[in-house]
Amino acid sequence: MTIYNFDTPLQRRETNCAKWGHYAPDVLPLWVADMDFPVALPVREALHRQIDLSGLGYPDAMGVDDLPELRGLLVERMQRLYQWRIQPQDIVFTTGVVTAFHMASYAFVAPNQAVLVQPPVYPPIWHAAQTTGVKHQAAPLTRLADGSYVVDWEHFEAAITPETRMFLLCNPHNPVGRVFTRRELEKFAEICLRHNVLICSDEIHSDLVYTGHPHIPIASLAPEIAERTITLMAPSKTFNIAGLQCSFAIIPNPELRKQFQRGNKGIGGWVNTLGLVAAEAAYREGDDWLEQVLVYLESNRDFLAHYVAEKLPGIQMVKPEGTYLAWLDCRAFNLPSDPCSFFLENARIALNDGRTFGPGGEGFVRLNFACTRSTLEQALDQMQQALASTQIQAPSA
Ligand SMILES: Cc1ncc(COP(=O)(O)O)c(C=O)c1O
Question: How far is the CA of 139 from the centre of ligand 1 (A)?
Answer without folding.
Answer: 20
